[in-house]
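hi!! sorry for the late reply, been swamped w classes. u asked for the two structures so here they r. pasted raw, havent cleaned anything up. first the sequence of the first protein and right below it the tokens
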Amino acid sequence: MTEVRIINGSHHALPRYATPQSAGMDLCANLDEPVTLNPLQRCLIPTGLRMALPAGYEAQVRPRSGLALKHGVTVLNTPGTIDADYRGEICIILVNLGQEPFVINDGDRIAQMVIARHEQPELVAVEVLDETERGEGGFGHTGW
């Protein structure tokens, strides 16, 4: 099992997987006082967490589906990427796409984090790409 070193500067428990097959773990707001997010407003919410991912790994910050469905609150740069060499505090850019103000309280679960392997492939400049059945068909091309 891969280990991730983490500094918990918040006053909440470390993130954890809610079920044995969960891909993501919830991140909580670490606030001194509630933050009101008005419709179409965005803000940076601290978590109090800092971590050292192993080389070849990234952490992806994603929205929580319940916040998006019930309140229209989502992570703005989805997915946000935390690189293995970043050592600063993990903060979440939230936006309120809903119609009503949304209050974020200390300890609220505001996003989820997925830790995944990645590669850095070598890019090779060419003049022609191989042909495929799809070709240059883009958005909506497959009919689904």
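now the second protein. again sequence first, tokens right under
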Amino acid sequence: MSNDNLVKMANQIAHYFDSEPDHAKAVQGVRQHLQSFWTPAMRRQLAAWVEAHAGEGLDAKVREAL
């Protein structure tokens, strides 16, 4: 899967949790979703992209969840 698609999907997950008033719960929701529904390879690819691009363009909740 392309990095652009992973970033887009991760941001969509984070935006789903935008309505959660407790930031820590929102981050935990993103983390849980990534653990439950993304393959380890997808998580590793996204983490490598974050490291290479300093997380530019990725929602803060996703960066924290990783």
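hope this helps!! also noticed smth abt the second:
Residues 3-65 form one domain.
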